[in-house]
Inverse folding.
């Protein structure tokens, strides 16, 4: 069923992770029923917000992007999110043997995709892309995504809670490194002149 675990992950993640594990979702199913849909939320909201409302660093003037220049950015962002989930899943699968895990790649990708649920959902705040507001709403979502990762590791990967904390911390560190790498690549591309077109007025 499409998006059938969203509410459970937000309200009672310990129980919901067990339900996800019982279903044993494959990579295709995880993407089709969850990741493909939720990853579109921040992309669509960001496209609308930056082209219609305008990006604001502080609550003064707004800088809108032209729809033509924002569309390729939205497409690349969507593909990047989908790839990032799979890469994190691969890293989870690769690292879990060190911690005594018993999961396959399917479970690892499901863990990565479902743990990112709060980050995908809070992307709706990009409909109004005001930096301080997005940060204010995004930080609790990030904290809850980390909590989902910590609670999901024992159920999905089969690592005891004591080791699960260390394992989840290692996964989190890898995720942060990936995020910084994506930001660095964006800065380099924009510095090279490959960036959006700002619409005045």
């Amino acid at each position: 069923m499409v998006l059938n675990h969203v509410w459970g992950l937000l309200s009672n993640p310990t129980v919901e992770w067990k339900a996800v594990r019982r279903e044993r979702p494959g990579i295709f199913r995880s993407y089709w029923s969850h990741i493909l849909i939720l990853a579109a939320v921040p992309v669509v909201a960001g496209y609308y917000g930056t082209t219609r409302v305008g990006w604001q660093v502080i609550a003064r003037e707004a800088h809108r992007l032209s729809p033509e220049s924002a569309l390729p950015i939205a497409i690349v962002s969507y593909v990047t999110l989908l790839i990032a989930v799979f890469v994190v899943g691969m890293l989870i699968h690769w690292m879990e043997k060190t911690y005594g895990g018993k999961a396959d790649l399917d479970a690892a990708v499901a863990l990565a995709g479902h743990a990112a649920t709060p980050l995908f959902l809070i992307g709706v705040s990009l409909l109004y892309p005001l930096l301080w507001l997005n940060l204010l709403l995004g930080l609790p979502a990030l904290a809850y995504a980390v909590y989902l990762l910590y609670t999901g590791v024992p159920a999905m990967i089969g690592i005891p809670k004591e080791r699960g904390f260390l394992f989840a911390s290692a996964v989190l560190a890898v995720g942060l490194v990936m995020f910084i790498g994506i930001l660095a690549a964006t800065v380099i591309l924009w510095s090279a002149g490959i960036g959006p077109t700002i619409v005045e007025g």
In short: The chain is about 75% helix and 0% strand.
